[in-house]
Design a protein that fits this description.
Length: 318
């Protein structure tokens, strides 16, 4: 049995690497967690893993064969992607790797493509009965409004436009920007929800965490919450065809009116996942049980509510 784990593009994902190491050791005492990075010497997570392998860019033609070679040589049973730019490629490689007994923890291409383009994400939300911000015609604007790129990440190129003077030609002529209703953060709370989907494409765990403070597009202060989002998401996103493993769904929620607004979906571990892990949402364990030991996973929500995360900077010294 292949019982080791590989985390790709590990970079700064020290906490995630530790979670997989700690969890795997409980099931496979001699199991190892490896990582890959373009520059292992400068990848903090590489020093936490059992070994970090140097790989070229995901777009390099040699990348798929090199990754498969590492997996076969190091007895890898699970591959865990961490960055958006590798998801489509790894989704295409799932069948090839599966023939070697290697499970790549990424959803099918259709769902990944849907998540990567926010125009399609909005259509998906609406088809599932989840409200999205109303579209605004940029040539007939309603202020205030919000603009963001359809393929953006890390909270870059975002625009809160309060009046016509702020709607510059640069913003107006940017072909990638989507213009929409502004969701007032003084009224709505912002949530990222970590969700784990089993092999049967059904959700097994849902952990909503309020984004109290954001830094560089990632949660810096957060709070777990068992509110209306739990039953709502279980009902509306309880089954997603082709969806497996961890995804994180971004939403706005207004407690007074119970209005829930879908923003985006990232079909991978999110940067704030450590809070979900700390409260009891151990997704690495679910993966190990399901993919290494072929167990059936049941839905559970017995994780700790009102757990507050306050992040701070730390360092690896080499």
């Amino acid at each position: 049995m292949r019982h080791n784990i590989l985390i790709t593009s590990a970079g700064k994902r020290v906490a995630l690497t530790r979670y997989f190491k700690n969890t795997l050791s409980k099931f496979v005492p001699n199991g190892q967690v490896f990582t890959t990075d373009m520059n292992p010497t400068m990848a903090p997570a590489g020093y936490v893993s059992d070994k970090c392998f140097q790989v070229p860019r995901v777009t390099d033609s040699d990348y798929p064969n090199l990754l498969l070679e590492i997996c076969k040589r190091e007895n890898i049973g699970i591959v865990v992607p961490t960055i958006d730019t590798e998801l489509l490629l790894l989704s295409d490689l799932k069948k090839k790797f599966s023939k070697e007994g290697i499970s790549i923890m990424v959803s099918d291409r259709y769902f990944v493509s849907l998540c990567r383009d926010k125009r399609n994400t909005s259509s998906f939300f609406e088809a599932c009965g989840v409200r999205v911000p109303k579209h605004i015609d940029k040539y007939n604007p309603i202020f205030p409004m919000f603009a963001k790129p359809y393929d953006g990440s890390l909270s870059t190129n975002l625009h809160y436009i309060k009046c016509k003077e702020e709607l510059t030609c640069e913003i107006l002529e940017d072909p990638k920007l989507l213009f929409m209703e502004y969701i007032d953060k003084s009224i709505y709370k912002e949530y990222t929800v970590d969700m784990y989907f089993g092999k049967d494409n059904k959700v097994k765990c849902i952990v909503p965490r309020e984004r109290i403070e954001i830094r560089a597009g990632e949660i810096n202060k957060g709070l777990t919450s068992k509110n209306e989002l739990l039953p709502f998401l279980k009902e509306h996103l309880g089954y997603i065809e082709g969806c497996v493993g961890c995804i994180c769904v971004q939403l706005f929620f207004r407690e007074e009116t119970k209005d829930i607004v879908g923003i985006e979906i990232n079909p991978r571990f999110g940067g704030g996942y450590p809070l979900s892990y700390a409260c009891g949402g151990n997704f690495p364990e679910l993966m190990i049980r399901e993919y290494l030991f072929d167990e059936q996973i049941s839905y559970f929500d017995n994780w700790k509510e009102n757990l507050l995360m306050l992040r701070f900077d730390d360092a690896i010294y080499v």
